Amino acid sequence: MAVFAVIGLGQLGAAVARQLTEGGGEVIALDRNEARVDNVKDHVARAFCMDATDERSLRATGIADSSTVVLALGENQLEEAVLATMLLRDLGVGRIIARAGTEVQAKVLERLGVSKVIFPERQIGMQIARQLLMPTVREVVPLADDASLAEVEVPRAFVGKSLADLKLRAQYGVNAVALKRRHEVVQDDGSAKHRETVVSNLGPETVLELGDILVVVGDDKAVRTLAAAS
């Protein structure tokens, strides 16, 4: 079982800790705020109320066994993030993911050897803007600077047509890699429930239905063009 550690148990850190546990990871959670520790202690393997810049205490948590440590400290906790990063490096932690609020903070953390810097507020803002601009796009996952994986609701104009008919690559600049389709399933009590399945073996003959979600790869402009087809 992979071991992870999360330092800083605000909304971001607590959410990361819970998701890692639900995904099968063993999680060590740390924060100096007792209420925050109490909030997650039943959802992680080990929880500690402590100062992450105290080397002796940090070592005693077993954090050196972690494959990845997530530093989810607040924007005003740069000094603590810097000291914690230095200690984690000394303890031999291989991968450190740190939160930053500004480009300056990101540069400082990167120079200390942080593996990846994240800007959660910026990413959430981009996601909200994307949803407003492209309401038929359910989710976008950046793959590179010029490519994203996106889930797009099938436009009504596409319903009943095959992928061969649509020529998505030629017409819209995207490649379809999978399809999500909803099915109505009758429960034991007679009630109906919708269940979503993934169709990954797409072919030219695959015909789209109302309510389908296309999973495509392309640049942001191409995804916007496809979303606007409805």
- The helix fraction, in percent, is 25-40%
Give the overall shape: elongated
Number of strands: 11
- Pairing-aware structural class of the strands and helices? alpha/beta
Full CATH superfamily name of the largest domain: NAD(P)-binding Rossmann-like Domain
| CATH architecture classification of the largest domain | 3-Layer(aba) Sandwich
- Whole-number total of structural domains: 2
Q: Which parts are unreliable, with pLDDT below 50 for 5 consecutive residues or more?
A: none
Span between N and C termini? 45 Å
Rg over C-alpha atoms, rounded to the nearest angstrom:
22 Å
Task: Summarize the structure in words.
It is built from nine helices and eleven strands. With 230 residues, the protein is α/β, with parallel strands linked by helices. The protein folds into two domains: 3-118, Rossmann fold, CATH 3.40.50; 135-227, Alpha-Beta Plaits. Strands 3-2-1-4-5-6 form a six-stranded parallel β-sheet, with helices on both faces. The radius of gyration is 22 Å and the shape is elongated. The chain starts with a strand and ends with a helix.
In short:
The chain has 230 residues and is α/β, with parallel strands linked by helices.
Keywords:
alpha/beta, Alpha-Beta Plaits, 9 helices, Rossmann fold, 230 residues
Structural topology:
Blueprint: E1 3-7, H1 11-22, E2 26-31, H2 34-40, E3 46-49, H3 55-60, E4 68-71, H4 78-90, E5 95-99, H5 103-111, E6 116-118, H6 120-133, E7 137-144, E8 147-153, H7 163-166, H8 168-172, E9 175-186, E10 192-199, E11 213-218, H9 220-227
